[in-house]
Design goal:
Blueprint: H1 2-9, E1 22-27, E2 30-36, H2 45-53, E3 61-64, H3 78-84, E4 89-92, H4 104-111, E5 115-118, H5 122-128, H6 130-138, E6 142-150, E7 154-156, H7 168-179, E8 183-187, H8 188-194, E9 211-215, H9 226-229, E10 236-240, H10 249-254, E11 257-260, H11 271-280, E12 285-290, H12 292-300, E13 306-312, E14 321-322, E15 338-346, E16 349-356
Parallel strand pairs: 3-4, 4-5, 6-12, 6-13, 8-9, 8-12, 9-10, 10-11
Antiparallel strand pairs: 1-2, 1-3, 7-14, 13-16, 15-16
């Protein structure tokens, strides 16, 4: 099952709106087939593994990181494919909460005489597919806030200089982070001042690029920006207020898709509604890269699930620009609580990953 989970991880950022699934088929103590969900969500992991196993799948055990699907979509049900291949036993890490599956795949296997063992390494499987689970159960993608700053929490000098606070190794790791997310989101000011590309530019990278998204209530993104100029090659979305849509003809001509988001009681775009909109379009994993106001707004609304902090061994002092704007925390009990998950040295820098717990 650990092999199946490792295979599934290859699909992160590549298979949305589908889950990232891995499958390993074992016969007589020997692995005879492996597979994972391919880019775009098909073929499915079980199909790939069965194709590799061939006739050796008969009487074998299939280890699957998520319950085999039980419905006809772009491909036939994977549960039925396992049955027809003659698999004798299936070990499933986690049930699929999608209403079209939700135990139905396991029930179909058992009805056909396949022995099924559930919940092997369920927690690692749940963490791996947290984005898919979030979209199904909460209607929105998993949100990871990525920050790159100094030891004292600054992302730029007072004049705005920020290139480069972190080193080459950390920046390459940040590109890998983009590769494992379906989309990258920035605020309007970051898009305007930094003019980013928001693509994964690792050497030799040929995988699916993330959707580039700008939260831009007044639709101020320039048609001459890198994001707009590249919209005919990479999906680029602008989340804006409904009344701004009519001002977007120049952006639409470049290939930018404009998505209307209602305003909240404070007059700003309703971030919860924006995330539901993105979930409805199939996104499961969203990486938020800036800036400080957007980070604070999402944190205040309790809409951040994970934090990836790239920390450089530098100090800029109070005059430096903060990574996170005002959180309106008056008491310690109101602070955003984080649970450390892992840390990774990256040359002189450090990547710390946290779960947001409160």
């Amino acid at each position: 099952m650990r092999q199946a989970l490792a295979l599934a991880a290859r699909g992160l950022g590549q298979v949305w709106p589908n889950p990232a699934v891995g499958c390993v088929i074992v016969a007589n103590g020997r692995v005879v087939g492996r597979g994972h969900t391919r880019a775009g969500g098909r073929p499915h992991a079980e199909t790939e593994a069965l194709r590799a196993a061939g006739a050796a799948a008969r009487g074998a055990t299939a280890y699957v990181s998520l319950e085999p699907c039980n419905h006809h979509g772009a491909t036939p049900p994977c549960a039925q494919a396992l049955i027809e291949a003659g698999v004798a036993r299936a070990v499933v890490s986690l049930r699929d909460p999608d209403p079209r599956v939700d135990g139905g795949g396991i029930a179909r296997l058992r009805a056909a005489g396949v022995a099924v063992l559930e919940d092997l390494l369920a927690e690692p499987a749940r963490r791996l597919n947290a984005g898919f689970l979030s979209r199904i159960q909460r209607g929105r993608p998993l949100v990871t806030l990525k920050l790159a700053g100094t030891l004292d929490g600054r992302i730029a000098t007072a004049s705005g200089e920020s290139r480069w606070i972190t080193g080459e190794v950390a920046r390459a790791r940040a590109h890998r982070l983009r590769a494992t997310h379906d989309a990258v989101l920035v605020g309007a000011q970051t898009a305007r001042l930094d003019d980013p590309e928001l693509t994964c530019r690792l050497p030799g990278w040929s995988g699916r690029q993330p959707v580039r998204i700008v939260l831009d209530s007044r639709l101020r993104l320039s048609p001459d920006s890198r994001l707009a100029r590249g919209a005919d090659r990479q999906p680029t979305w602008c989340l804006c207020a409904p009344e701004a849509i009519e001002r977007g003809a120049n952006l639409r001509a470049k290939g930018v898709e404009l998505l209307a988001v209602p305003r909240g009681a404070d007059g700003r775009l309703d971030l919860a509604a924006a995330l539901r909109l993105l979930g409805g379009r199939g996104l499961t994993r969203l990486l938020v890269e800036g800036g400080a106001e957007l980070a604070a707004s999402l944190l205040r609304a309790r809409l951040v699930d994970r934090v990836a902090w790239f920390r450089a061994p530098l100090l800029l002092g109070q005059e430096g620009r903060p990574a996170v704007a005002e959180l309106q925390v008056a008491r310690l009990a109101e602070a955003i609580a984080l649970a450390p998950r892992e840390w990774q040295p990256l040359g002189p820098d450090l990547l710390e990953t946290f779960d947001v717990t409160a």
